[in-house]
Amino acid sequence: MSATRLLLLGPPGAGKGTQAARLVARLGVPQISTGDMLRAAVAAGTEMGRQARAAMESGELVSDDVVIGVARERLAQKDAQEGFVLDGFPRTVVQAEALDAILEQTGVKLERCVAITVDEEVVVARLLRRAEIEGRTDDKEDSIRTRMCVYREQTEPLLAYYRERGVLAEVNGEGGIEEVALRIEGGLS
Ligand code: AP5
Ligand code: MG
């Protein structure tokens, strides 16, 4: 039986979304992306979207309170009871502790944190290419650099957090999408 309560951690452009989509298709559990949910809120013009918009465009983090609320609500839904692939949450130690508390309430634990590592110049190139195709408002060079700094300062400490808990698998995210997917499968077994 493979693990079904997973987290993909990594810098912007590491391939979290790409690999999460493949994992959920294989495991039959939902992908939970706080970035996608926040972008949907911005597009729908909700109060939360209005509050999150400026931080997202500049590449800063949305407040812990807001994203923890979003994640808590999503994890409580029926389709997430047998598992989930978290993509982009948690991103701070405060969020990681909140996730532990949320899962503890239902008596489950995060089984694996897959940390996807990619060289900074590779991710910048990937995101500038995506900017031409999709036009995501935070795929501009200055926002990308800010997202990288925020990752290093606030999110990278989570590698130690999950290593200490014995659930960390580090995977090289460079190379083709298939190649990375195979490495992740290896990291999950
Ligand atoms: P979020 O949406 O999570 O963005 P991100 O972390 O910056 O990462 P991306 O989605 O850009 O990259 P990815 O790792 O998913 O890679 P992808 O598969 O797309 O967050 C956006 C913002 O929302 C944050 O900055 C923040 O403001 C806010 N936010 C979200 N969650 C939050 C939280 N928990 N707390 C606070 N704020 C939060 O791949 C990237 C590109 O590369 C694609 O074009 C893809 O096709 C391509 N690609 C993928 N794999 C490969 C490969 N192996 N080879 C070549 N190309 C590849
Ligand atoms: Mg993504």
What can you see in these coordinates?
The chain is of the alpha/beta class. It has one domain (5-188): P-loop containing nucleotide triphosphate hydrolases (Rossmann fold, 3-Layer(aba) Sandwich). 58% of the residues lie in helices and 12% in strands. The chain has nine helices and five strands, in the order βαβαααβαβαααβα. The protein has a five-stranded parallel β-sheet with strand order 2-3-1-4-5, with helices on both faces. Residues 10, 12-18, 34-35, 38, 55-56, 59-62, 67, 88-91, 95, 126-127, 130, 138, 147, 176-177, 180 line the site of BIS(adenosine)-5'-pentaphosphate.
- Rg estimate, integer Å: 16 Å
Could you say what the CATH architecture is? 3-Layer(aba) Sandwich
Describe the global form: globular
Estimated share of beta-strand residues: 5-15%
Ligand inventory: BIS(adenosine)-5'-pentaphosphate, magnesium ion
- Please give the domain count: 1
- Which fold name fills CATH's third level, the topology? Rossmann fold
Structural class by helix and strand composition: alpha/beta
Separate helix tally: 9
Distance between the termini: 9 Å
* Percent of residues in helices: 55-70%
Instruction: Give the class-level CATH name.
Output: Alpha Beta
Mean pLDDT: 96
- Quaternary structure of the protein: single chain
Sheet with most strands? 5 strands, parallel
Topology order in helix (H) and strand (E) letters:
EHEHHHEHEHHHEH
Give start-end ranges of low-pLDDT stretches.
Answer: none
Q: Within the largest sheet, what's the order of strands?
A: 2-3-1-4-5
Number of DSSP-assigned strands: 5
**Could you give me the name of the CATH homologous superfamily?**
P-loop containing nucleotide triphosphate hydrolases
